[in-house]
From TrEMBL:
GO molecular function term, any single one: glucosamine-6-phosphate deaminase activity
Function: Catalyzes the reversible isomerization-deamination of glucosamine 6-phosphate (GlcN6P) to form fructose 6-phosphate (Fru6P) and ammonium ion.
E.C. number: 3.5.99.6
Protein origin, superkingdom: Bacteria
Name of this protein: Glucosamine-6-phosphate deaminase
Domain named Glucosamine/galactosamine-6-phosphate isomerase: residues: 10-225
Organism: Kitasatospora gansuensis
Amino acid sequence: MEIVIVPDAAAGGELIASAMAELVTRKPDALLGVATGSTPLPIYQALAAKVRGGALDVSRARVCQLDEYVGLPTGHPESYRSVVLREVIEPLGLTEASFFGPDGAAEDVAAEAIAYDHALAAAGGVDLQLLGIGTDGHIGFNEPCSSLASRTRIKTLTQQTRVDNARFFDSLDEVPHHVITQGIGTILEARHLVLLATGEAKADAVAATVEGPLSALVPASALQLHPHATVVVDEAAASGLKLADYFRATYAAKPAWQSI
């Protein structure tokens, strides 16, 4: 994996947004996989600034979801479809037609998960998939001990993940117990994986992902198997890395034209 240590979340957002902008410039109809939560917001803000400033045309770009809650009513403000529309699609000036994801309110959720997996392949595959990481090392909603070959499916959230996500709801009781998530095997099919982690609370998970063994107990460690995976971390999230100085030196020695 390529490890990039940045000063803070804003710098990480700008770096990743620049890589996404380069991709869209090179491939205007690129399929961008987006993640939700607070961590990727600096990326979306930096992208939107590029669009508003006329430096980037995303009119032909496509966007797809990483995961979705099961059981929230259509249009619920904390459904991930609503979140992506609010934080990504509208700020970038895209239309809802450019965006697709699984329907967590579908009558047959298991069939919906399979259909979404097929839809990603039919769309030509994801060109760049953004990822966050949980304090327990999960990516998407692939909780610890998920199969490293798993496909898009229904997953039951751990109590810790529900507690972590409760800040977006009025109470813990409102956080759904189930989700549809791209599986680890599905995620690994994206052409470029970019994981952003910020804050000291993510330091142990980042260290286990980057420097620990490949293990289903740390689902994000599956990124070690990918030919083009980039992990961008701020200094706090990098605090557990034994090879932090090496990673800093490696990135600093890159030619100026070489992007992540």
